[in-house]
Each structure stands twice: as C-alpha cells, then as structure tokens.
Design goal:
It contains 7 helices and 7 strands, in the order αααβαβαββαβαββ. By secondary structure, it is of the alpha/beta class. A 7-stranded mixed β-sheet has the order 3-2-1-4-5-7-6, with helices on both faces.
C-alpha cells in the first residue's frame, strides 16, 4: 500500500513518472485546489490526501491498459481517473484522444481548463452518458460512478470490439459482480488496489447482454 502522507512528487516517483509529466500533474493539483472551493470538485477532506486519494488511485490503472487510440472516461467529475491518465498518455500515446463525459457544465469547464494548462489531448462532452452514443473507444474508465451492473450498461454501447473497461471499485465489488452476472455476460479480472485496502481494480472485456 502507498503511504497516505506521501506528496504528489513522491507518488510520481513511485509510479516512475517523468519529470515533465510530474510537472503537468502538479499543475493539475494546483488547479484542483484553486477551483474546489467554488464548485466542490472533490470532498474538502480529501484535498490534503489528494496525491494518494486521487492521483495515485488513478495512476494505478495505467499498467492495466491495452493498446489504444481512444479512451472514454465516464462521469468524469474532477477528472479522476481520466485526466491523470490523459496527462500520462501525452508522452507515450501522443495521438490518442481522451473523451470525458460529464453532465455538469462547471465541472466540464474545469476539465477544459486543466486540459489547456497541461496540453492533454482531450475532448470534454457536457452531456449525460446516455446521450454519448456517438462515441466509441478502445478503453473505458470510471471511478465512484455507479454499480457494476450500471457501468456495464453505460459501457457496452461505447466499447469497440476487443476493448476493455477499467473500473475502480470498493469493498462491494464481489457482490456487484454477482449481481451484474444476472444481466450481463463478461470476462472480469480483479486486482488489489494500491491505495485502498478494500478496493479493487476491475478489468472487464467481452460484454454481452444476457438473453
């Protein structure tokens, strides 16, 4: 487990993030602190632990990716995990595009501001997930958004053939998977979270509705 009091620089070092990318993530963290009092992007109580609670939590998904050209982050909010991963991807996947689907106009404005300041290759869609059917991606991510059943329902129409979903889930992951299997066929892999002793990184593929 990653120490809860580690700095963002320490987190980046632990994940072997380059100096240039670390600087961009620091810009992101500064913008989060600047905007948060006005639009409540994340719980105020988590700001001090943001390097682990938000940034490391997002960074851990990177190693579970497959090759991709397009990535959709659902219910993006403050941009975790999608914006962190878009900034990381700038060096290794410069032509890949990240799509953020966020219905709140103020949060969308924040995401666009972070994208400009960090030069991340993103498009922010201010719309409900149900209205984003025109999007298609190789990878779909989500964090603290909905149950696994709902996430599969959101993701299935947007996922390209052979694509994967990466979900950050909490202590109810196992029961959620059992529930989801009543409505969906899918292949799922579970990995222990590096930031939450009760958390799970869920990698899902081959989603198909039952019946």
């Amino acid at each position: 487990m990653i120490a809860s009091d580690i700095t963002l620089a320490g987190v980046c070092k632990q994940f072997d993030v380059s100096r240039e990318t670390t600087e961009k993530l620091a810009i992101y963290e500064a913008l989060l602190k600047k905007w948060n009092p006005a639009i409540n992007l994340v719980s105020k109580s988590t700001l001090k632990s943001a390097p682990v609670r938000h940034f490391a939590d997002s960074l851990q998904l990177w190693k579970y990716r497959t090759e991709f050209k397009s990535w959709i982050d659902l219910g993006s909010g403050a941009g975790f995990p999608g914006m962190v991963l878009a900034i990381i991807a700038s060096a290794e996947y410069p032509d890949a595009k990240f799509h953020f689907v966020e219905s709140d106009a103020r949060k969308s404005a924040f995401l666009r501001n972070v994208s400009r300041e960090t030069q991340a290759n993103t498009v922010v869609h201010t719309k409900r997930i149900e209205d984003a059917a025109d999007l298609q991606a190789d990878i779909i991510s989500a964090r603290a958004l909905a149950s696994t059943t709902e996430l599969l329902s959101f993701s299935a129409p947007l996922l390209k053939k052979g694509g994967i979903c990466l979900y950050l889930k909490g202590q109810n992951c196992q029961s959620e998977l059992a529930e989801a299997s009543r409505f969906w066929k899918f292949e799922a892999e579970q990995f222990a979270s590096e930031t939450d002793g009760n958390g799970t990184v869920l990698r899902v593929r081959d989603i198909e509705r039952v019946g």
